[in-house]
Amino acid sequence: MAQETRDPQLLLQQVFGYDQFRPHQREAIEQVLSGQDALVIMPTGGGKSLCYQIPALVREGVALVISPLIALMKDQVEALRANGINAHAINSTLDSGEKMQIHEEIGQGKVKLLYVSPEKVMTPAFLDYLTTLPLSLVAIDEAHCVSMWGNDFRPEYAQLSALVDLLPHVPVIALTATADPATQADIVKQLALRNASVFLGSFERENLHIEVQPATQRMARILRFLRDHPGEAGIIYCLSRKSTEQVAEQLRNEGYSAAHYHAKLDRQERDRVQEDFQRDNIRIICATIAFGMGIDKSNIRWIIHYNLPKNIESYYQEIGRAGRDGLPASTLLFAGFGDVMTYRMMIADSESPDEFKDVQIQKLDRMFSFSQATSCRTNAILGYFGESRSQPCGHCDRCDHPVTSFDGTRIAQIALSAIARVNQTVGLQLLVDILRGAANKEIREGGYDRVKTYGAGRSWSRDHWVQYVTQLIDRGLVSIDYTEYGHLKMTPIGEDVLYGRAPVSLTEPEGYKGKKKTETVRKETPRQAFRRELLVQLSLWRKQVADTEGISPTHVLSDATLEALVEDPALFPAQLEKIPGFSAHKRQRYGQDILRVIRSYCHGQDWRKTFKGATYLETLDYLRTGLSLEEVAQARGLGVETLYCHLAWLTEQGEDIPVDDYVSESLKTQIIDRWLALGQPEALNPVMQELPSGTGFGQIKLAIASWQRRQNVGMKMDERV
Ligand code: ADP
Ligand code: ZN
C-alpha cells in the first residue's frame, strides 16, 4: 500500500486501524523519531511492537528488528504484511532464491522492516552488509535476553552492544516485558544504549482474570473450567512431558480438540502443532514451557497452569500470553506443594553455582507464597515487580470472593500432634493418610495405624486436609525439610499453637468458583443471540480466508475487531472505518466481503427494526435489482423524495451510488455553487430558493453528499508525502 502520511497519529489510524495510542506508545515513538535510544518496558500484549513499527514507517530506510525466535519473526511479518507493510524476516528456513529476492527488495528501498536473529546479525558478513544500508532504526525485541538477571539469558544477545557501537547515528529501541529494576538497568548497560529514555508501563493486565486453586482433582476442575469457556483457545502448562501427553489425551477423550507439545517432539511435529493452534485448527495445547515463547496468537482466551511455575516472572509471562487482543481472558493456577518439592530437587541436582541456586529457591518460595496469598493477586504480582498499590484489582479470585477466616486452632493441633507423634518423619501425603485413617500398604507397613492420632481427622475430607496443612506451612507453623525427603517439621510457632499458647486462623478450602457472576444468568435476549450467531458467521468466514491465504485467522482480523463488527452490525463501508483494527489495507481487501457476510446474515433475520441503516439497505437492494427510483418508491410505499434522501445517506456511508443517474451534471453544479456561495449551510431552504423549480431536498442532499465524498477522497490524497 502506498504510504499516505508520516504523522504517527494518522499512521496509527490508517495503517493499524486504531484510534488512540496506549500509554507510553506516543512518547516512545517520539523518542525514536528524534533519533535517540529508548528502552520500552510493557507487559505482554501492552503494544510494544507499534513503538518501533510506526517510527519504521516514518523514518527513511529499513528498520532492523532483532528477535530471538523464528516463529516470533514469522508472526510479526505476517501481521505487518496483512496491514500492507512490506516486511521480511531473514532466517535459516529461507532458500537462497528467497534471500536474493529479499535483498533485491531492500536494495530498491521497498522494505520497511527486516527481522533478523541475533546470531545472524552478528556475523561479519551481515555486519558489513548492514553498514551499506540506510537503516531507520534498530529494534531489539525481548531485550531482557541480554541480561543475566532476567530469566531468559541468551549469550548471542550479549554481543549486541557491538552492533549499537557500529551504528552511532541509528536510534536503538530495546523492548521487553521483564520488569524488575535490576534487569532494566542491566539492559541499558549491556546494550550500551546512549542516553536512553526508559518508558515503563504499568504491569497490570486488566483483562486477565487471575485465579488459583489447590492442586487436587485437577482434571475435574479443568473440565468444569472448560465448560465455562466453550470453543475458546487456551494453553495448559504442565511441568512434565508425560503430563502434557496424559492431559491432552484425557481432554480428547472428553471430546475436546487438544494436542500436546514438548521439547522431545521432533521439530516438524512441533511446528505442526504450533501452526494448527495458531490457525484455530486445535483449540487446546497441553505443553511444557517450551511452548509459547514464539507464539503470537492474540486470541488465546485462557491459560491453565497444571503445575506451579518456577517463579513469578515465568508465571506472569505465561499467563500474559492470554488476551493479547485486550478482550477478557481467564487464568487458572493449580498450586500444590508437591511441585515445590520437585523444583527444590531439580535445583539441588543442577550444576549451577550455589549463589544462583539460592536465587532460584527464593524466587520459588515467592511463587508459592503468592499462590497462598489471601488478598488481591494482582497487587501481589505488581508488588513483586516493584509497583505498589493497595486498592483491589477487581479481576482476581480474591477480589471476587474475599476469603473468610475462622479459628483453626483445633484443626492445627490435630495435625501438629500427628506430626509430633510420628517424630516428624512423614511428608504431606502420608500425614494426610494418617489423619484420615487410611488403610493402605504404606500405613500398615509403617505401623502408622497404631499412632494415637491415626484417624483423628476423619471428619474432614482429604482435600480439606491437604489445604489446611498447606496453610499451616504457609503460616510458618510447619516447615518442610527438603534435605530429608520433604518431611514435615514443627516450628517454634507450631509448638506454641500445639500447646495452646497461640491461636491460628485458617481459611476454608475452595472449589472452582469461576469468575464472579455480576448478574444471575439470564436468558439470552434476541439481540444477544443475533450477535452471537453473527460472530460465528464472521469467524467461519475469517477461518476460510486465513486458510486460503495461509495466514493466522487473527491476522486477517482480530477477535476484538470481529466483536466490534457485531456490536453494532456494520452494514456500510464508512462504518468499517470506525472499527478498531480494521486498517485501511484490510478495508480495501476484506471490506466488501465482510459487508456481504453481515448483510446476508442480516437478511435472514428480523433485524430490520433493530438496526440503524436497515431501511437504507433495503432501498439499495431494490435499486440493485434494476428498478427505477419511482418503481422502488412504489414497491416500498415511500415517496421518491424520501428515496433521494436514502441515496444521499448511502453516499455518505461510502456506498458507490451512480449519482449522475439521479441528478444531472448541470443541476449538480448549480446546487453545489449555490451551497458553497451560501457558506455550506446545514439548513438547505435558502439553497433551494434559486434552483430550478421541482428540485427537492433529496436531490440537493444527494448532490452535496457526492461532492463531500469527493472532497474527502481528495483530502486523503493530499496527505501523501
Ligand atoms: P507486546 O509486543 O507488547 O506483547 P503487541 O505489540 O503484540 O504487544 O500488541 C498487542 C495487541 O495490542 C496487538 O493486537 C496490537 O495490534 C494491539 N495494539 C497495540 N497498540 C494498540 C493501540 N494503540 N490501540 C489498540 N490496540 C493496540
Ligand atoms: Zn484482585
Radius of gyration from the alpha-carbon trace, in angstroms: 32 Å
Query: Percent of residues in beta strands?
Result: 5-15%
Number of domains: 5
Q: Total strand count, please?
A: 17
Global mean pLDDT? 88
Tally of contiguous helical segments: 34
CATH topology (level 3) name of the largest domain:
Rossmann fold
User: How far is the N terminus from the C terminus?
Assistant: 13 Å
Task: List segments where confidence is low: pLDDT < 50 over at least 5 consecutive residues.
Answer: none
CATH architecture tag of the largest domain:
3-Layer(aba) Sandwich
Q: Tell me, what is the CATH class of the largest domain?
A: Alpha Beta
Q: What would you call the shape? A: globular
Broad structural category: alpha/beta
Kindly describe this structure.
By secondary structure, the chain is of the alpha/beta class. The chain is built from 34 helices and 17 strands. The protein starts with 7 loop residues before the first helix and ends with a helix. Helix 20 (428-436) crosses helix 22 (462-474), helix 29 packs across helix 31 and helix 30 packs across helix 31. The longest helix has 24 residues, at 526-549. A seven-stranded parallel sheet has the order 3-4-2-5-6-1-7, with helices on both faces. A six-stranded parallel sheet has the order 8-13-12-9-11-10, sandwiched between helices. It has a two-stranded antiparallel sheet with strand order 14-17. It folds into five domains: 8-200, P-loop containing nucleotide triphosphate hydrolases (Rossmann fold, 3-Layer(aba) Sandwich), CATH 3.40.50; 208-336, P-loop containing nucleotide triphosphate hydrolases (Rossmann fold, 3-Layer(aba) Sandwich); 405-507, Orthogonal Bundle (Arc Repressor Mutant, subunit A), CATH 1.10.10; 524-612, DNA polymerase, domain 1; 640-721, no CATH class. The structure holds adenosine-5'-diphosphate and zinc ion (ZN). Residues 376-378, 392-393, 396, 398-399 line the site of zinc ion. Adenosine-5'-diphosphate binds at residues 18, 20-22, 25, 42, 44-50, 298, 324-325, 558, 580.
